[in-house]
Amino acid sequence: MSSIPLTLNLIEGSVSFSFSPEAARELKTATDQLMERLKAIAAKPTPGGGRVAPQPPLEYRYTGEVFLEVFCNPNIWPTPFAAKVLLTVRNANIRLTTEAELTRIIEDINQYLEQVG
Q: CA dist 97 to 33, 49, 86, Å?
């Protein structure tokens, strides 16, 4: 387990917790796939065009010293840059559920991966 905590910046404030580099890479892969789905939705012309096929949501779960859940329905956001995720961080003593900006979470994960090498 890495001694460097993962810090996720929220719309107001931030949260830091122990997170493994392997789990961070898995979360990065999941958010990268979500971004591709969001870009596909945003690129589809809507006026007079065909309906965009619904895209599957991001449902990421990690259990370690804390439980982390990240959820995003890409079908409700007009662009990847407007997208927000529902974030839940909990352990036996505390539970935090809030929204966070997807692009900020991606930046935080990338920064963490650079730190842990």
A: 23, 37, 7
